[in-house]
Amino acid sequence: MASFIISECGFKPLSRIIHRPITGANPTSKTSFFVNSNNTSSTDLIFPSLKFTTTSSRHTNWGLKVSVPLTLAPPDGAEEEEAAEFNPGAAPPFKLADIRAAIPKHCWVKDPWRSMSYVVRDVVLLFGLAAAAAYFNNWVVWPLYWAAQGTMFWALFVLGHDCGHGSFSNNLKLNSVVGHLLHSSILVPYHGWRISHRTHHQNHGHVENDESWHPLPEKIYKSLDNVTSSLRFGLPFPMLAYPFYLWNRSPGKTGSHFDPNSDLFVPSERKDVITSTVCWTAMAALLVGLSFVMGPIQVLKLYGVPYWIFVMWLDFVTYLHHHDHEEKLPWYRGKEWSYLRGGLTTLDRDYGWINNIHHDIGTHVVHHLFPQIPHYHLVEATEAAKPIFGKYYREPKISGPLPFHLIGSLIRSLKKDHYVSDTDDVVYYQTDPELNSSSSKSG
């Protein structure tokens, strides 16, 4: 289609490519450039002895106004070839500051009243569900209650997670108080978790230094006994891992989130860890006391089963933020790792109706790079950042009302994402065929 030179004078359409000799240049050479009728961008044309500068101002300007692409239009099939050559493990052509600049300023604003409104909403729903289940008290209602209440426990965790990142408010004391109340109520040691989760964000995508669902190097993987291997890769066990992780961390790492002397923490953080462990112990004691008052079966139905549903939600969501994409995700070591490159290996996920319930935690890439953004701005911030991300952003598959499609993603990943190379600095998950064939793996 013919292009137009747009100006206040209204030139007639020209052919798509103009050949014009340049004074002072080789008289036999020609310089080609495009003329774009949309006039939507500004680009400098630099020739050997002449420079045209384009503008997009609405004010009158009698200079030549053209929009010129930096290169000629690619031939047919070139875009497909370029996409096929995209290397997800390569350093991106943009910087963290470029992403930050693209995100609207209001997305960084933390509103404590709005944050507290979500806490009030979730707590009211939680107690309402418990009251309704106790009132009806029949086996038609209990399974529905467990699924709903376990999801609400998970929602409480996400709000406490915001407190841990400081995205709940700018008030450190408010964040700590609300974080302790929310996390202790679901048996999570707030400061112990907060500090190790900070380590996860600071080292995301690093094989050895990451803290959550990081890959096992081949040497450690092959040293696992059959029981440990089955627990890590055989459903449903990986989806029940979180409480055990709090006590013992992952294979190849040592320390406990409850122990102030753990190598997870520096000496200045020990008082915080003790405070959170005391709060956790108080909640456990309260549950024991309620078991004597209400009976252990009733406490199990009202709290115990929803707690394990919450654990499954936590492991399910956090695992899928870092696993199973049609294009393998890189992990890094040494000089190849950077904060930006590590953050770009995370994935956004769509959870349908659950997106609102669990506070858009599936909008995860921007959260990983900028955890100080409140959850209620993550969707808008992500949309603003997508043009910068380009192919480094992996669009999530749209979910139905409930995210059943992600169960298949989980199963596929556990069958193929087993270990990574011990030595390379840019690595991808490899598959152990023996584990998939259910044959005995040497310890």
From TrEMBL:
<dbReference type="InterPro" id="IPR005804">
    <property type="entry name" value="FA_desaturase_dom"/>
</dbReference>
<dbReference type="Pfam" id="PF11960">
    <property type="entry name" value="DUF3474"/>
</dbReference>
<dbReference type="InterPro" id="IPR012171">
    <property type="entry name" value="Fatty_acid_desaturase"/>
</dbReference>
<dbReference type="GO" id="GO:0016717">
    <property type="term" value="F:oxidoreductase activity, acting on paired donors, with oxidation of a pair of donors resulting in the reduction of molecular oxygen to two molecules of water"/>
</dbReference>
<dbReference type="GO" id="GO:0006633">
    <property type="term" value="P:fatty acid biosynthetic process"/>
</dbReference>
<keyword id="KW-0444">Lipid biosynthesis</keyword>
<keyword id="KW-0443">Lipid metabolism</keyword>
<keyword id="KW-0275">Fatty acid biosynthesis</keyword>
<keyword id="KW-0472">Membrane</keyword>
<dbReference type="Pfam" id="PF00487">
    <property type="entry name" value="FA_desaturase"/>
</dbReference>
<keyword id="KW-0276">Fatty acid metabolism</keyword>
<feature type="transmembrane region" description="Helical">
    <location>
        <begin position="118"/>
        <end position="136"/>
    </location>
</feature>
<dbReference type="GO" id="GO:0016020">
    <property type="term" value="C:membrane"/>
</dbReference>
<comment type="similarity">
    <text>Belongs to the fatty acid desaturase type 1 family.</text>
</comment>
<feature type="domain" description="Fatty acid desaturase">
    <location>
        <begin position="138"/>
        <end position="393"/>
    </location>
</feature>
<feature type="domain" description="Fatty acid desaturase N-terminal">
    <location>
        <begin position="1"/>
        <end position="131"/>
    </location>
</feature>
<keyword id="KW-1133">Transmembrane helix</keyword>
<dbReference type="InterPro" id="IPR021863">
    <property type="entry name" value="FAS_N"/>
</dbReference>
<comment type="pathway">
    <text>Lipid metabolism; polyunsaturated fatty acid biosynthesis.</text>
</comment>
<keyword id="KW-0560">Oxidoreductase</keyword>
<keyword id="KW-0812">Transmembrane</keyword>
<protein>
    <recommendedName>
        <fullName>Omega-3 fatty acid desaturase</fullName>
    </recommendedName>
</protein>
